[in-house]
């Protein structure tokens, strides 16, 4: 939609004006994320650019906030908790979610609409409401597990947070996997069955490799949901399950330390990596299904 | 056709009628699909649906009075609070018997704080009386009426007993009434005292601010979505990264970034001072107020507006606009009469999504909202973790849930829940 050579002055002005507006909106979208990065190398405990930083004086920059993150016990414990909780929650939501998505994509499913609505609801119901509901129910569930099953209090705390995070990740798995299954050629499974493969073999040898990109990107969504989640863990977990976002949240609300910016920069790097993976997977999946020429 | 009629129904290979055979295959297929879904449905029911249900139940449940004061509740049922006279000695004796048990179990303070939500000061009455009642014997020390009134003069007021009578049932509408700034009193439903009437205001503020945020997202999202949909694919994909990166970045990272940007000693103020737009001593206050919440949340929710708009606009052929112009429409008419109506589904989807998300936001308003920019969800969190008025928190949550579910239903109607796309 380039500008035609006969465009009037007004059209030219609008054409460029519109682009400037769009550029400003893009700047609005991206600046907050970019600003955090250089500030995390601040050698002072300030949240703004010091004169030394602006004159690119090496004195103004340091890695001390990163050092703090990697040596401080509180931060390391919360990082460890996040790294424990998120993968387990992801595995639960991916395995159950993929099975259900395969079930849902078959041609005759009774009450499909209702089932879908229930399975997507954890994404739609505001987190604060899910957290309130879970707070009441999980505390009695936890008491029951501690008293009747005799489980360790700490362990029960992890179970509660993992279950809560797993259910929050499920809608993402359902959505991405059903979207991949839309393009799945059901005659392939019939062909496999025809040649004598049992349903399990068919699933792992034929269906799974083809829908794998969707499963992985659903898994990444579920992972980031858990890795990024504060509200529910705040209500359901106890201090020993403090995750990284929780630690950041306390830091932001109470004493604000620039270590948060270092953590933020690391998290941005992680999200860039995840975004790249998801994008590559999406293209691969489209290519596999012959949906786009790229 | 005539052949079929002559030789009876068509048979399958195993000799059964084909129709029945097909029906059986279909039934088996349905069963298999359901078996695949069942584990997840069970999991979601246990970990999500039941917790939400328990919240709904808790918003009306009021067993605490009946459990802590079982005899009093029975004895007081026949008393007429409108008579203006104090209940009989029988009620006082029942109360003391109940209290002796409650003090032993240490449940009387919990009942006190429960009733304190309805009548300020009653909590300390329970605590104070608990210390005295412990020393009494239910038979030897009778009668109790004057003794109790000696311990705390509140026990000599009709309103105290009327309150206990009003809240003696196992269920109450009290929490819901409190949630909309009303209260259930012995004389019926009344407005809360002026200084406690904040929740309706908060509900309205939540709705208004969510609408402003949604509106800001439309204004900012529409041009970007249009640009992305009309650029060549390669360039559009490149620019799409600028939308997807914030979408993928941790919510807390973005919130802390806005805290850094908007502070009085923050980046935006520094730049404005440096440019000379603002004097150093009159830096703008952009955080801990509604402005901060609106800006930060618009930024956080903007990708949720752009992505659905973009996917709808991609399907609108650009030739429609050219056709309209060649038929003599001005640029504006061509856009407003031809392009815009076709892009409405995208706007609708984005609006509902952004509105649903913003109405229940907690983290961002908590950090950048101060006191003026907080939402109803912050109040829910406050009642859960600080004031411990869980019933009220549950009632507020239920009201919010009903609003969101109505919007969810509308979304399902307009867009279809199967059509939600991510990234």
Topology at a glance:
The complex is a heterodimer of chains A (294) and B (423).
Chain A lengths: L8 H31 L11 H4 L9 H8 L1 H32 L7 H13 L2 H22 L4 H30 L3 H9 L4 H29 L3 H6 L7 H10 L5 H30 L6
Helix pairs in contact in A: 1-12, 3-12, 4-7, 4-9, 4-11, 5-7, 6-7, 7-9, 8-9, 9-12
Chain B lengths: L1 H5 L11 H41 L4 H6 L1 H7 L12 H17 L2 H9 L5 H12 L11 H7 L6 H9 L7 H6 L2 E4 L2 E4 L7 H32 L2 H16 L2 H12 L4 H9 L14 H24 L5 H8 L4 H29 L3 H6 L7 H10 L4 H25 L9
Antiparallel strand pairs in B: 1-2
Helix pairs in contact in B: 2-20, 4-5, 6-7, 11-12, 11-15, 11-17, 12-15, 13-15, 15-17, 16-17, 17-20, 19-20
Protein architecture, described:
The complex is a heterodimer of chains A (294) and B (423). The mean pLDDT of chain A is 86. Chain A is built from twelve helices and no strands. With 294 residues, chain A is an all-alpha fold. Chain A starts with 8 loop residues before the first helix and ends in a 6-residue tail after the last helix. The model of chain B has no long low-confidence stretch (mean pLDDT 86). In chain B, strands 1-2 form a two-stranded antiparallel ribbon. Chain B starts with a helix and ends in a 9-residue tail after the last helix. Chain B is flat, with a radius of gyration of 32 Å. Chain B has three domains: 2-58, no CATH class; 63-196, no CATH class; 199-419, MetI-like fold. Chain B has helices at residues 2-6, 18-58, 63-68, 70-76, 89-105, 108-116, 122-133, 145-151, 158-166, 174-179, 199-230, 233-248, 251-262, 267-275, 290-313, 319-326, 331-359, 363-368, 376-385, 390-414, and strands at residues 182-185, 188-191. In chain B, helix 11 runs antiparallel to helix 12 and helix 19 (376-385) runs antiparallel to helix 20 (390-414). At the A-B interface, helix 1, helix 4, helix 5, helix 6 and helix 7 of A face helix 2, helix 11, helix 12, helix 13 and helix 15 of B.
């Amino acid at each position: 939609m380039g500008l035609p050579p006969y465009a009037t002055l007004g059209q030219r002005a609008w054409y460029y004006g519109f682009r400037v507006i769009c550029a400003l909106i893009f700047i609005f979208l991206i600046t907050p994320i970019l600003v955090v990065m250089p500030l995390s190398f601040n050698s002072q405990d300030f949240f703004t650019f010091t004169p030394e930083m602006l004159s690119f004086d090496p004195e103004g920059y340091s890695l001390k906030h990163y050092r703090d993150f990697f040596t401080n016990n509180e931060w390391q414990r919360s990082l460890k908790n996040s790294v424990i909780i998120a993968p387990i929650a992801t595995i639960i939501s991916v395995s159950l979610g993929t099975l259900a998505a395969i079930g849902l994509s078959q041609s005759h499913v009774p009450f499909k609409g209702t089932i879908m609505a229930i399975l997507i609801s954890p994404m739609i119901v505001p987190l604060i409401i899910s957290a309130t509901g879970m707070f009441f129910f999980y505390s009695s569930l936890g008491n029951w597990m501690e008293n009747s099953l005799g489980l360790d209090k700490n362990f029960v705390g992890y179970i509660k947070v993992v279950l809560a995070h797993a259910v929050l990740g499920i809608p993402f798995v359902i959505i991405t996997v059903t979207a991949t299954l839309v393009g799945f050629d059901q005659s392939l499974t019939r062909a496999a069955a025809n040649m004598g493969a049992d349903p399990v073999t068919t699933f792992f040898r034929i269906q799974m490799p083809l829908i794998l990109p969707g499963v992985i990107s659903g898994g990444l969504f579920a992972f980031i949901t858990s890795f990024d989640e504060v509200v529910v863990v705040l209500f359901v977990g106890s201090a020993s399950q403090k995750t990284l976002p929780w630690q950041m949240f306390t830091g932001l609300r109470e004493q604000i330390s620039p270590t948060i910016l270092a953590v933020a920069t690391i998290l941005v790097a992680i999200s860039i990596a995840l975004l790249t993976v998801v994008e590559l997977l999406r293209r691969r999946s489209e290519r596999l299904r012959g949906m786009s020429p790229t | 056709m005539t052949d079929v009629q002559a030789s009876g129904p068509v048979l399958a290979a195993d000799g059964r009628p084909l129709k029945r055979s097909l029906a059986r295959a279909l039934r088996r297929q349905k069963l298999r699909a359901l078996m695949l879904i069942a584990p997840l449905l069970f999991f979601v029911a246990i970990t999500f649906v039941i917790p939400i249900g328990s919240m709904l139940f808790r918003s009306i449940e009021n067993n605490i009075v009946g459990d802590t004061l079982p005899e009093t509740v029975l004895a007081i049922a026949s008393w007429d609070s409108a008579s203006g006279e104090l209940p009989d000695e029988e009620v006082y004796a029942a109360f003391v018997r109940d209290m002796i048990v409650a003090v032993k179990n240490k449940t009387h303070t919990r009942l006190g704080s429960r009733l304190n939500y309805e009548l300020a000061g009653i909590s300390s009455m329970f605590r104070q009386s608990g210390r005295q009642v412990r020393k009494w014997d239910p038979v030897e020390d009778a009668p109790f009426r004057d003794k109790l009134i000696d311990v705390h003069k509140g026990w000599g007021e009709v309103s105290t007993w009327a309150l206990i009578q009003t809240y003696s049932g196992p269920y109450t509408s009290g929490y819901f009434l409190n949630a909309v700034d009303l209260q259930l009193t012995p004389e019926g439903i009344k407005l809360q005292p002026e200084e406690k009437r904040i929740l309706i205001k908060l509900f309205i503020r939540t709705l208004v601010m969510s609408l402003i945020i949604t509106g800001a997202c439309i204004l900012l999202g529409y041009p970007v979505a249009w640009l992305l949909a009309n650029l060549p694919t390669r360039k559009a994909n490149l620019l799409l990264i600028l939308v997807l990166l914030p979408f993928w970045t941790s919510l807390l990272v973005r919130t802390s970034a806005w805290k850094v940007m908007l502070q009085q000693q923050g980046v935006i103020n520094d730049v404005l001072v440096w440019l000379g737009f603002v004097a150093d001593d009159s830096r703008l206050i952009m955080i801990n107020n509604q402005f901060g919440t609106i800006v930060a949340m618009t930024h956080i929710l903007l990708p949720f507006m752009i992505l659905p708009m973009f996917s709808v606009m991609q399907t609108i052929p650009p030739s429609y606009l050219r056709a309209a112009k060649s038929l003599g429409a001005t640029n504006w008419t061509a856009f407003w009469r031809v392009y815009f109506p076709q892009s409405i589904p995208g706007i609708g989807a984005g609006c509902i999504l952004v509105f649903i998300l913003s109405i229940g936001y907690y983290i961002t308003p908590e950090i950048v909202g101060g006191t003026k920019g907080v939402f109803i969800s912050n109040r829910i969190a406050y009642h859960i973790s600080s004031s411990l008025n869980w019933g009220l928190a549950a009632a507020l949550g239920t009201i919010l849930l009903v609003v969101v579910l109505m919007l969810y239903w509308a979304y399902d109607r307009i867009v279809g829940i199967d059509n939600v796309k991510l990234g």
